[in-house]
Amino acid sequence: MAAMPVLSPLQVQDLFTARLDEICAHFEEWGFPLAVEGQLGDVAPNAYKKYYQLPLVDPQLGTSISLEATKLVLAAADVRAGDHVRVTGCLRARHLRGQVALRFEVLTVEPHDPGRQKVDRAERSLLDVLRGLSWQFQPYPDRRDARLLLIHSASSSALVSEDFLQALGGGWRSERIRALPVAMTDPHRIADAIGTCREDIIVLIRGGGDVSDFTVFEHPLVLEALSNCVAHRVLGVGHTANRTLAERLVDHSATTPADAGHYIRRMSGRVWQRQEEERAQQEEIVALRESATSMAALPAGAPFGARLRNGLILLVVGTLAGLILSRIL
């Protein structure tokens, strides 16, 4: 014990650091690679040729490790954050400030399931679009001369436009309707057609079909165009079983083109009826005012009883006019 050297605290730290460096160096002797599966996380961009802390996450347990991967390897594999991948690399250790951390040097990267990767990317892209959309309800126009844009299939065999117009009825003159046929399988053309809307109401219709035929109504371009449209938006697509995300971005969703026509006809009838009621009430108010004015025009020497009677009549007329105005407003 007497011959034991006495060290300073700094020397103890240096001894511990040297021992850690020795332990980390032994990981270099592991010449065999390991294969790991997981989901690539996101990392802040940098100007280096390599990512030093690229997360690889277990989607089920949430456990993650940090990868060291060159940008060339990731670019060659065509993988990005969110993709499920299989990584081959070597296990290493890093010693930094008295701490030992796991290192995993990536040799190769490949998609775990290329088909699933394509679907996952499309879903993530769609979710990103939906998060960025700002939807606002557009009320049905309170005008009897409102104009309508009808977007329907350009196929000559499709009769959906006839079904819609028949259900719409004769209350809408042809000059108030602009029919625009488009290819219902092309999201770019549908989005462009929606973007041309300058009318008060826009109606997008198509008939039934295979489930795959309706994915166009979940395309980011179509959803964005519907979100930005300031007209009252009506969707009449397919049948009850064909539900799409576009239904969430319109003001009324009908199950069939004919049902969309019935909706427009019903709403137009309500507008007409309300305006007719308001016109009748306005005429009634005018008549009451004229009657009250004629009764109030009495000679200066009229008996007190006559003036009192006319005053009471004016009070009743004023009360009735107030009630009618309150109903209108």
Automatic annotation (TrEMBL):
All residue ranges annotated as the Exonuclease VII large subunit C-terminal domain in the record: 155-284
Gene Ontology terms, MF aspect: exodeoxyribonuclease VII activity
Gene Ontology CC: one annotated term: exodeoxyribonuclease VII complex
Gene Ontology biological-process entries: DNA catabolic process
Coiled-coil residue spans: none
Name listed for the protein in its UniProt record: Exonuclease VII large subunit C-terminal domain-containing protein
